[in-house]
Amino acid sequence: MNDRDGKASNPGLEKGFEKRMQAPVLSRSLRALAGLLRRVQFAKIGLFIISLFLFILAISLMKDGARGVAPAVQGIFAVSNPANSLGFGWLFAYTIMSGSPVAAAALTFFDAGVVDKLGAFAMITGSRLGASFIVLFIGFIYVLRGRNRATSLSMGLLSLTVTGTTYLLAFVVGAGLLKMGTLDRIQLESGALITSVTDLILDPITDLFIRFLPGWGIFLVGLGIIILSFNLFDRCLPQMSIKESQVGQVSRWVYRPWAMFLLGSTVTLISMSVSVSLSILVPLSNRGFIRRENVIPYIMGANIATFIDTLLAAVLLNNPAAFTVVLVEMLSITLISIIILVASYHRFEKLMLDFVEWVTASNRNLAIFMFTILVIPILLMLV
Predict the structure, then answer these.
(1) Which residue, 59, 88, 352, 71, is CA-closest to 229?
(2) Helix (H) or strand (E) holding 206
(3) d(CA 98, CA 91)
(4) What's the whole-model pTM score?
């Protein structure tokens, strides 16, 4: 058989040639696939699945045990109004060094009727105020390690100050939205389906705890499990190495407030922990990669995205009003942050930086500040 040029062609020879040409391509594809599989950290994926399961289990246990804690919350801690709830959430987050478990506890208290809608909203706000102390605590650790006090503490102080200012303003806006019922009709339709599936899986486990533990014991076990779930999730995050070459490539974005706002939101969404996303600011600042005047929008973005896990907890409770509380919290803090960024960012920035500079100027000022953030939630509990 001849081809178009009149030359003889051999089908068997052509097929052999095609196979030899395909072999290197197939080999390269297999090597690429093997390299990809080596880079996938299956242990971290398994840990993530375990942490997610524990989170859902913890919400279920806390929901079942919340009524057993009601006498202590309403009697011993005297949580009977929004001010008490704000202080209680604030101190609770100090105690366990985390805000997300306290926010989840607020929703379970609301679901059990321990606090009302505004009380749950206030307790969640308090949990975020208390959680921002963690960054300041990390700054203290850097000071003990011999690092510059002003640099190490500035990020924690700035995080706490920006969080406190924006959240308290958002509390006023959110309380108004809750009273008007503006967002009551917005719900996640798949919530009932999710809870029915999780109930089918978790009911045998929760029934076992209910059989052997009192209500308050079930709640405490759930609280311990949810703290464990967040710790495990932190271990799932990839280890990030900070190189000057990498920082140099994105350094121009540091000076753009909206870019930093989106970065803070993104990092928190990925880590599902505002403590993680804000805590990395301390080493970055100590190594000179970022300055405190550039991180205010980052903190604002992180403070919005941190409610994703709380929103999931509301969905798992299958309580429409609880979902509304979290949605109002997210919307109010978003509105306040956007208004500040658009209308008066530079004035707000100067105000925050001047206050942080005053606090770090002397040991007396720092002591006054630390005393104040400890006393305020206690006073709120006594109102």
Answers:
(1) 59
(2) helix 191-212
(3) 10
(4) 0.75
**Which residues share a beta bridge with 134?**
none
Q: What is the DSSP letter of 8?
A: B
Encoded tokens for 10: 């051999």
In angstroms, the CA 253 to CA 234 distance is 26
Q: Which residue has the tokens 């206050």?
A: 355
Residue type at 184 in one-letter notation: D
Q: Does residue 171 sit in helix, strand or coil?
A: helix
* Residue 16 one-letter amino acid: G
Between CA 207 and CA 191 the distance in angstroms is 22
> In degrees rounded to 5, what are phi and psi of residue 213?
-120, 150
> Hey, which of 51-55, 101-105, 117-121, 279-283 has the most confident mean pLDDT?
117-121
The answer to whether 304 touches 86, Cβ cutoff 8 Å, is: no
> Please, are residues 326 and 183 in contact by the beta-carbon 8 Å criterion?
no
Count each helix (H run) and each strand (E run) in the chain, helices first.
18, 0
Cα–Cα distances in angstroms (integers) from residue 216 to residues 62, 220, 331, in the given order: 9, 6, 33
- Per-residue pLDDT, averaged over 11-37, amounts to 52
